[in-house]
Specification:
about 260 residues, 16 strands, Nucleotidyltransferase, domain 5, 5-stranded mixed beta sheet, globular, 6-stranded mixed beta sheet, 3 domains, about 35% strand
């Protein structure tokens, strides 16, 4: 989508949020005002930004948020985590790069995520927006998913991050069990990982509920996933963003991470 409304007014920049979902193949940016109205939504290849995107990103926005997929991470119980000892967790990340190591508190789960981004991807956005809030994508996903988790039964989430990457996460009887990223190239890969999770966590032959988010490739993925689920739910937008021009039909659910990032601290 390459949408720029005539209602976008450069004189109101202090009232706008610039939101970016960064990736390795594709970036998506949006401009949203305080009333959750979006006059701009643009997708473009990461390595070849279109002119409209570069023009928008060159503007002096006061509020900027960038969501970036993690490269590696681990979860630490909150009661045991001390930020001054963050270097102690580097062996769990398989790296010695302390400068590119961050933490994010998942308060509702009583966990702290220690994570890293791809260095080149992170530096690209830090150069563009030195004062931006930069969030790991899993933080937005888990923040939204927790509201849909029951204290009984199993809930499996599949978040489609990029063309060949899907994040899987699992709650069992309300307790967080798993979050991991896998390469997915076809439907059989989906089946392999779902069946592996069913077996590993003794969930029987099916999941009570599956939560789907991100840009799901096509209808065949719904059909394959539904074979393992009692219920399938699409994570919609909590922010209830709408395009500035109401006559333009659009499904904004695939952009839930982009728009809902504004709710994460």
């Amino acid at each position: 989508m390459n949408y720029i409304s005539k209602q976008f007014n450069i004189h109101y920049l202090p009232e706008y949020n610039l939101l970016v979902k960064a990736g390795f193949q594709k970036d998506v940016l949006a401009v949203v005002d305080k009333k959750s109205i979006a006059p701009i939504l643009i997708e473009y290849p990461s390595e070849e930004p279109i002119l409209d995107a570069t023009r928008i990103m060159s503007l002096p926005f006061r509020f900027v948020r960038v969501v970036i997929p993690h490269q590696t991470f681990t979860f630490i119980p909150k009661e045991f985590f001390l930020h001054e000892n963050i270097s102690d967790y580097l062996p769990f990340l398989g790296t010695t790069d302390l400068e590119n190591t961050f933490s994010y508190s998942l308060d509702n789960l009583n966990l702290v995520a220690v994570y890293q981004f791809d260095g080149l991807l992170l530096n690209r956005w830090k150069r563009l927006f030195p004062d931006a809030v930069i969030l790991p994508e899993f933080a937005v996903v888990l923040d939204r998913a927790q509201e849909r988790v029951s204290i009984r039964g199993s809930v499996l989430g599949l978040h489609f991050v990029a063309e060949n990457t899907v994040d899987f996460y699992l709650f069992k009887n309300g307790v967080f069990q798993l979050y991991n990223s896998f390469e997915i190239h076809n439907l059989d890969d989906i089946s392999y990982y779902v069946l592996n999770i069913l077996t590993q966590f003794n969930l029987g032959s099916s999941i009570n509920k599956v939560l789907l988010s991100g840009e799901i490739p096509n209808e065949s993925y719904y059909k394959r996933i539904s074979a393992y689920a009692g219920e399938i739910e699409i994570l919609d937008l909590k922010t209830k963003v709408v395009l500035a021009d109401s006559e333009i039909e659009s499904n904004l659910a695939p952009y839930n991470v982009l728009f809902d990032s504004i709710l994460c601290e």
